[in-house]
Amino acid sequence: MAAALLARFLPPDYRVELVESESIGTVGVGEATIPQIRHFNQALGIDEAEFLRETKGSFKLGIAFDGWRGEGHSYMHAFGPVGQSSGLIAFRHYWLRAKALGHAKDLAHYSPNEMAARNLRMPGPGGADLPYAYHFDASLYAAFLRHYAETRGALRTEGTIERVERDGETGDIAALVLDGDRRLEADFFIDCTGFRALLIEGAMGAGFDDWSNLLPCDRALAVPCASGGDFTPYTRAIARKAGWQWRIPLQHRIGNGYVFSSQFCSEADAADTLLANLDGSPDGDPRLLSFTTGKRRRQWIGNCLALGLAAGFMEPLESTSIHLVQSALARFLQLLPAGRSTPSTIDHFNAQADFEWSRVRDFLVLHYWANGREGDPFWDAMRALDLPAALQAKIDQWRDTGHTHREHEELFTEVAWFQVFAGQGVLANHYNPLADAMAEQDLLDFLASQERQLEQAAAAMPHHADTLGRLMARPAKRNTAA
Ligand SMILES: Cc1cc2nc3c(=O)[nH]c(=O)nc-3n(C[C@H](O)[C@H](O)[C@H](O)COP(=O)(O)OP(=O)(O)OC[C@H]3O[C@@H](n4cnc5c(N)ncnc54)[C@H](O)[C@@H]3O)c2cc1C
């Protein structure tokens, strides 16, 4: 992603070199995204049909959380709006009032995305304007972007970094020493070495903020399986005994994984759970990934910026990692130094990263803390978590007033918070009294007409598989990645 974006936007006198090691390879997971990925692809001028063909992608309208509130329950964090506002106040206040009166249905009935998603519908080009993201094969996307970057002048070097040399005076990185004694000098280095974090940690000693007290899942078992079940235009995050299982439908297979806490579940039990819950036959044995949740204390130091897993990792519950790469790149390009990076620029970037990451973390923690799975030791421990102050304040505000807000540029909107609060049964004790200005019958009609409109709109939409097939049959536009 970094090489592609830099090759696309840097002036011609800059040289971009991408060092990769085929013997090490990539992590090979990371298949669900959020709608911002479309801005990234659009900025690169990538044709959507070609992208979906090359990455075997599918559409995503949201994430279904199955069993988080209790076995058999499901709610969705769907992209886009939920319900219409009226007058000065947001829909959620009318919904809370209707709920208090015993009339409100689940948010599924008022969300355009969830209504379409649950019916396996996906509007085609020119149809309803629903915000969406993609599922894709991460390895194919990496290969696609590598090709894009190389055709725009990025030089790709195969090799293994064995040593990182620092300048004795400035402390900056001076060069990478590759196997075979090749030495690569550069003005600026972007560490994309994954969990190894060879540059930012290995050489620069960034330090790590360990968040595993808040998000204790530290393992994932991943296994693709043959297609089966519904071709859902949404990701599923299914609660299991000591964590949760993802289900990501692609064109050629389904991506599955069980994210769990090794404190509460053995690898063998996790593998049994995962393999017993697939829609098709598994493609090999599950692959184990171990991680510690948290972030580098400083993601930019001197002439080194860390991206992706080298910058830190939070579990993929809300599909945020690829977005955090994209967002860091966008912020980096805004602050691109003309010469040596100044401390004020670096400090500003790192403060933005601290804010962005900690708010994403809090949103993930909410899902766990608000679970209703009593009797499972893992879930019982999660309900007893000591919450970060900012998250506690959000919860208090919601409970006391029915209000949620998006602070500065935090990633998740007030509607996202609303859906998780409502979906997991964290109810507000009050709503804005302006909602009482609507007569009760008008309130019922207001909700019913929204639901009716959404049902009709969804029924008129084509199925996910048909929309995908039609789009991919379209010839690629000129000026694309190929
Ligand atoms: C279980 C799991 C599930 C995930 N699911 C999602 C998801 O659904 N959505 C999402 O947005 N994100 C997800 N992610 C995160 C996502 O996988 C990563 O953000 C993304 O793949 C980027 O990875 P990366 O490039 O940082 O690291 P990697 O893919 O590990 O790439 C590291 C690169 O560095 C190179 N390298 C390493 N060491 C050396 C060396 N010594 N010399 C030369 N080259 C070297 C490797 O060859 C490789 O090319 C998930 C992550 C995990 C662990």
- Percent of residues in β-strands: 15-25%
Oligomer: single chain
Taking Cα atoms only, what radius of gyration do you get, to the nearest Å?
23 Å
Q: What gap, in angstroms, lies between the N and C termini?
A: 16 Å
Output the number of helix runs: 15
Strand order in space, largest sheet: 4-3-13-14-15-12-16
Describe what is shown at a glance.
This protein has 482 residues and is α+β, with helices and mostly antiparallel strands.
Explain what you see.
Keywords: Plasmid. It holds the Pfam family Trp_halogenase. This is Tryptophan 7-halogenase. The protein has 482 residues and is of the alpha+beta class. It has a domain of 72 residues. The chain is 35% helix and 18% strand. It is built from 15 helices and 20 strands. The strands form six sheets. A seven-stranded mixed beta sheet has the order 4-3-13-14-15-12-16. A three-stranded antiparallel beta sheet has the order 7-8-9. Strands 10-19-18 form a three-stranded mixed beta sheet. A hairpin with a 7-residue loop joins strand 3 and strand 4. The mean pLDDT is 96. The site of flavin-adenine dinucleotide has 32 residues, from strand 1, strand 12 and helix 9.
